[in-house]
Amino acid sequence: MFSEADSKRQDAAFEQLKEEFSRLEQQEKALRKALGQPEEGTLDFDPNDVPAEVKKMCEEAQARAKREGAARAAQFESEFQTAATPTGAARPGGRRQGIMRI
């Protein structure tokens, strides 16, 4: 059952995500400015002009971002499941042995 405390935890997690998104937006704007690109929209460059070391750094950064995003999502899901499920109770839709549905 979803309680007031669960709602507050979810709101706090949402605020953290908003702050992280805002931080990343500011970082993106600074990088775009350094590259002489517009603050919004698509980047205007030829991928063939990008040096190999920069491509490698981008691939590593993307892989790291995917790992961190997956870890954050798993952490959030774990926190949500722990908060939403009372200790010892079966999760909704979970398998319960010895129970027959009629």
Structure description:
The protein has 102 residues and is mainly α. Among the domains are: 6-41; 49-82. It is 64% helix and 0% strand. The protein has two helices and no strands. The chain has helices spanning 4-35, 52-84.
Mean pLDDT: 79
Radius of gyration: 22 Å
User: What characterizes the major β-sheet?
Assistant: none
Number of helices: 2
Number of strand elements: 0
Q: How much of the polypeptide forms β-strand, as a percent range?
A: under 5%
Listing every helix as H and every strand as E from the N terminus to the C terminus, the arrangement reads HH
Our measurement of the CA-to-CA distance between the termini, rounded to an integer number of angstroms, reads: 23 Å
Which structural class best describes the helix and strand composition?
mainly alpha
Uncertain stretches of 5 or more adjacent residues? none
The dominant shape is elongated
Q: Please estimate the helix content.
A: 55-70%
Summary, kept brief:
The chain contains 2 helices and no strands. By secondary structure, the protein is mostly helical. The longest helix has 33 residues, at 52-84.
Itemize the secondary structure elements and their pairings.
Elements lengths: L3 H32 L16 H33 L18
Question: What tags apply to this protein structure?
Answer:
mainly alpha; single chain
